[in-house]
Amino acid sequence: MAGLDALHRPGLRAVPPGSARGPLRRLHVAVALTFALLAVELTYIVLASPRFAVREVLVRGDADLAREVVKAVSLPPNTNMVSAPLAEVKRQAEAVPAVREARVERSFPARLVLTLERREPVAVIRREEQAMLVDREGIVFALPEEWGWGLPELVASHIESGDVAGDEAAREVALLLRVLRALGNDPGIRPTRLQLGADGTIGILLDSGTRVSMGTREQLAAKVKLLAATLDQIGAERIARIDLAEPEAASWEPVDGVGPFPAG
Question: 139 and 226 share a domain?
Answer without folding.
Answer: yes
